Amino acid sequence: MRTALTIAGSDSSGGAGIQADIKTMITNGVYAMSAITALTAQNTTGVTGIMEVTPDFLGEQMDNVFTDIRPDAVKIGMVSSAALIEKIAEKLKEYQAENIVVDPVMVATSGAKLIQEDAIEALKIHLLPIATVLTPNIPEAEILSGMKIENEEAMIEAAKKISENYHCAVLCKGGHQLNDANDLLYSEGEFRWFYGKRIDNPNTHGTGCTLSSAIASNLAKGYALETSVERAKDYISGALGAMLNLGAGSGPMNHGFDLKSDFIEKCGNSQQTCENVLQRDKEV
Ligand SMILES: Nc1ncnc2c1ncn2[C@@H]1O[C@H](COP(=O)(O)OP(=O)(O)OP(=O)(O)O)[C@@H](O)[C@H]1O
Ligand SMILES: Cc1ncc(COP(=O)(O)O)c(N)n1
């Protein structure tokens, strides 16, 4: 069985972070492991507390994983401090980790800041250059590229700039755009759009975590980057289209979505999503 490791923060409400990553990895057919960077006390309405682990303890978790069940892919989510980022980079290099997906989590859907200011610089210096693919949303891509993104041309320009500056592929996610939920992949000088109809679902807690974990799972299974993104986009459309509605704020998605339910009508990739997800379920 193929394996994946998530290095991220725990979300007590189960919608984002480590919990979303593990749910996604299991349903995408890989064995899931975790190295936890911080505990957060949060729910669908907000984050009330963050307790970081020490860099040494994070390193110890990674040592235990890599020296026993080596991950075929690694997903990195919330890492709030520069010292933790440096430790992750050191260990990934030591173990020559492959298929590294970096989701540069900065601000939660609920508005809480999940990264310290100096950690953004550490992210640029230590993690981006070793990433296989980086998955910023639009506000994160604006910070990393230093430019405003107000349309699809600017999305292409920003992704190109980040990719060239940090030598990694960039998937700029369009969930924060006004119209459709189209994501742009810029890799090795080429770009490709992954189109998605905007699903009328206010419960988007953990969409970024879920998408990056689904990409990591597919890379772990040996799919090429473009195919991994395509399959991950189908997965997120299915999970959002299942219209779970829990909690008082922006709620979590349904990872156990049922293909026979009516979600196909609601999600953008329609029949293709259904076929890809059926194929995925067969592989599991
Ligand atoms: N309403 C929606 N309908 C369809 N797809 C969506 C919707 N919202 C987000 N997505 C998709 O979900 C994925 C995550 O995108 P988004 O831009 O929301 O990331 P994010 O802001 O990092 O997520 P998070 O909410 O976890 O912070 C992308 O593939 C995006 O296109
Ligand atoms: C531990 C953790 N990691 C990531 C997010 C971002 O997810 P979202 O933007 O959907 O709140 C979060 N809220 N909590």
Please characterize this protein's 3D structure.
With 284 residues, this protein is of the alpha/beta class. It has one domain: UDP-N-acetylmuramoyl-L-alanine:D-glutamate ligase, CATH 3.40.1190.20. It contains 10 helices and 9 strands. It has helices spanning 17-27, 55-66, 82-94, 117-127, 138-145, 152-166, 207-220, 225-241, 263-266, 270-283, and strands at residues 3-11, 31-43, 46-52, 73-76, 100-102, 133-134, 169-172, 183-187, 190-194. A 9-stranded mixed β-sheet has the order 3-2-1-4-5-6-7-8-9, with helices on both faces. Strand 4, helix 3 and strand 5 (100-102) form a beta-alpha-beta unit. Helix 2 packs parallel to helix 3 (82-94). The longest helix has 17 residues, at 225-241. The N and C termini lie close together (10 Å). The mean pLDDT is 91. It binds adenosine-5'-triphosphate and (4-amino-2-methylpyrimidin-5-yl)methyl dihydrogen phosphate. Adenosine-5'-triphosphate (ATP) binds at residues 16, 109, 137, 173-176, 181, 183, 196, 198-199, 201, 204, 206-209, 211, 233, 236, 240.
Q: Which descriptors would you attach to this protein?
A:
284 residues; alpha/beta; UDP-N-acetylmuramoyl-L-alanine:D-glutamate ligase; 9-stranded mixed beta sheet; 42% helix; binds adenosine-5'-triphosphate; binds (4-amino-2-methylpyrimidin-5-yl)methyl dihydrogen phosphate
How much strand? Answer: 15-25%
Helix proportion: 40-55%
Annotated CATH homologous superfamily: Ribokinase
Computed Rg:
17 Å
Number of strands: 9
Written as H for each helix and E for each strand, in order along the chain, the element string is EHEEHEHEHEHHEEEHHHH
Stretches where pLDDT falls below 50 for ≥5 residues? Answer: none
